[in-house]
TrEMBL record:
SMART domains, sorted: LRR_TYP
Naturally occurring in which organism (per UniProt): Rosa chinensis
Origin: domain of life: Eukaryota
Top-level EC class: transferase
GO biological process terms held by the UniProt record: anatomical structure morphogenesis; plant organ development
Location of this chain's protein in the cell: Membrane; Secreted, Cell wall
Pfam family, one: LRRNT_2
Subcellular location, principal: membrane
GO terms under cellular component: membrane
Membrane topology: Single-pass membrane protein
Name the record gives this protein: Putative non-specific serine/threonine protein kinase
Gene3D superfamilies (alphabetical): Ribonuclease Inhibitor
Recorded family membership: Belongs to the polygalacturonase-inhibiting protein family.
Length: 507
């Protein structure tokens, strides 16, 4: 009996050893297949400025130690291939389709070009592919629709043309699609509604003409970027039913119609809403103040009318608001000063009237304030505006603001751009202007009623690139020290000063 038992044990040991040897041989064969595929890729690379591939991918080094290569712990096969930002130039060979255990493939931010070989359709384990910012052209290959496990599909920043292949809309596991910055055109297929797991859509900077209602069925969608296309007509109202949305941007299209009044009731999680540079009309929704999570609101360059609601003061999370280039009327709401996180305000080119609310001094975080080309703003500049410690750009040009320029403005050491031209401002410039505003890059105060001399200290603003003081009543000389400002690109003389007194070339 013992002899039988020992015989059986020896048999099991031999079988196990044989299986292990077979598996080892198979693994070695497979890893050799992977290595051969990558060596073909290496041979297709014509430029490797950082020597990431040419030096590191050596047959004397185990493939799993090659830069950009990660192998799986179980099968020791190539699972991740990340060559992003290597600066490589070359083409992709069909042999990469032999990397049968590949899960992630990132070739973004290189200079790959040529045809994407159909054999890549054999990468059935692939979940992530990014070929963004390369030089690929022609149509997007339909074989991408064979990669059924794909979760991230990114081809941004190439020169693909034509329409999105219908096969792409069969990728039911897809969570992110990024086809931005290409030359794609036509209609976005209604089949996009099949991609029910989608969380992020990036189709910006193409030539799409229509977006379907079915996009409103994507209940997991969080980010929708479709700016800078050729979309026309109204936005599908179904989009405003996707409660998971956090960012929506349709900037720079030809969309029209009204902004729905219940937008904030359904988009309770919205953080960024960008509908600027379209043809929307009608009033601002009266309940915009219910968008409590809103961080950025951009509705500039449309045909919106009515008043800016006082409800805006409820958007306490807001950091950026751009409503310029519309037909808003009435006063600037005092409640704008209730927004403690506001950093950028753009209300230029409207029919607003009255004065700049003093409550704006409460917004210590503000960096950019655009209030130019509002001709019915006809009060003095509030002295309190100089109490904004982080202000970088102040644009008050082409208004009817009057009185003296508050001296407090020249105490904001963070200012880089100051626009005061084409108003009714009086007085003189402070003698120490160039010392007080050391970061000043652009200063426009032309076409006012300023007088006195142009301070010599202005030449201490070493970052100054553009200067316009024309159309005032300055006297004396143009400081020759302006010639020392090497960054100065544009300066405009004043009519009351003889330009011969300056050796600088004046426009």
């Amino acid at each position: 009996m013992e002899r039988v038992t020992w015989f059986f044990l020896e048999y099991l040991i031999c079988c196990t050893a044989a299986i292990c040897l077979t598996m080892a041989a198979q693994t070695k064969l497979n890893i050799t297949t992977d290595r051969s595929a990558l060596l073909v890729l290496k041979a297709r690379i014509t430029s490797d400025p950082q020597n990431m591939i040419f030096i590191n991918w050596s047959t004397t080094t185990p493939i799993c130690n090659w830069v950009g290569v990660t192998c799986g712990a179980r099968h020791h096969r190539v699972a991740n291939l990340n060559l992003s930002y290597f600066g490589l130039t070359g083409t992709i060979p069909p042999e990469l389709g032999n990397l049968s255990f590949l899960v992630n493939m990132d070739f973004s931010n290189n200079n790959f070009h040529g045809i994407l070989p159909q054999k890549l359709a054999r990468l059935r384990r692939l979940k992530f592919i990014s070929l963004g910012n390369n030089k690929f052209m022609r149509v997007i290959p339909s074989w991408f629709g064979s990669l059924f496990k794909l979760q991230v599909f990114s081809l941004f920043g190439n020169q693909f043309s034509g329409s999105i292949p219908a096969t792409i809309f069969n990728l039911s596991a897809l969570q992110k699609i990024d086809l931005s910055d290409n030359q794609l055109s036509g209609r976005i297929s209604r089949e996009i509604g099949n991609l029910t797991m989608l969380k992020e859509i990036y189709l910006d900077s193409n030539n799409f003409k229509e977006i379907p209602n079915e996009i409103g069925t994507l209940n997991h969608l969080e980010k929708l970027y479709v700016q800078d296309n050729a979309l026309k007509g109204p936005i599908p109202m179904t989009i405003f039913n996707i409660s998971s949305l956090t960012i929506v941007t349709f900037y720079g299209n030809n969309l029209n119609g009204i902004i729905p009044d219940n937008i904030c009731q359904n988009l309770s999680n919205i953080q960024g809403l960008n509908l600027g540079a379209n043809q929307f009309n009608g009033p601002l929704p009266s309940i915009f103040g219910q968008c409590k999570q809103l961080l950025r609101l951009d509705l500039e360059d449309n045909s919106l009318t009515g008043k800016i609601s006082r409800e805006i003061g409820n958007l306490t999370m807001l950091k950026e608001i751009y409503l310029g280039g519309n037909n808003f009327e009435g006063p600037i709401p005092y409640e704008i000063g209730y927004l403690p996180n506001l950093e950028e305000v753009g209300l230029s080119e409207n029919n607003l009237n009255g004065h700049i609310p003093s409550s704006i001094v409460n917004i210590s975080t503000i960096k950019v304030l655009y209030l130019g080309q509002i001709e019915q703003l006809n009060s003095p500049i509030p002295y309190e505006i100089g109490y904004l410690p982080n202000l970088e750009i102040l644009a008050l040009h082409q208004n009817n603001l009057n009185g003296h320029i508050p001296s407090s403005i020249f105490n904001i050491s963070t200012i880089t751009g100051l626009g005061l031209s084409f108003s009714q401002l009086l007085g003189s410039l402070p003698a120490d202007i160039g010392l007080a505003l050391p970061k000043l890059e652009k200063f426009y105060a032309g076409a006012n009623h300023l007088s006195g001399v142009i301070p010599k200290s202005i030449s201490n603003a070493s970052e100054l690139r553009s200067l316009d003081l024309g159309g005032n009543s300055f006297s004396g000389y143009i400081p020759t020290t302006l010639c020392l400002l090497t960054n100065l690109e544009r300066q405009k003389a004043v009519n009351s000063i003889d330009p011969v007194t300056s050796t600088c070339e004046l426009a």
